[in-house]
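Q: Could you fold this chain for me?
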Amino acid sequence: MAQAALEKEAKEFRALEKELQNLGTTRAKLLTQLNENELVKKELDLLDSDANVYKMIGPVLIKQDPSEAQSNVGKRIEYINSELKRLENSFKETEKKAQDKRGKIMELQAALQSQKQ
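A: Sure. Below is the predicted structure, expressed as structure tokens.
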């Protein structure tokens, strides 16, 4: 009975660890996107008001209004920051669940050891 409970908890713990790993990967991707968009914003801020800005849509470059491009990049940065905050909260929750599982596994292991003695 205790062995089955231990295996169940261990399986759930491994699932939480995998979820943490996936959240870390997603966070890294979002940070890369954020850095890229911040670089684009800095470049757009350096442009003259009469400069030409092009946006790649598929294989085609389309002329875009510089103020519209700045607005789009700003919105993208806001979105990425909100996603990072949401992801951070999810990471903390999952990490807490994993710690709770780790504690429960240790308790079950101790109970199993005391039964064997």
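A (continued): Strands lie at 53-57, 60-64.
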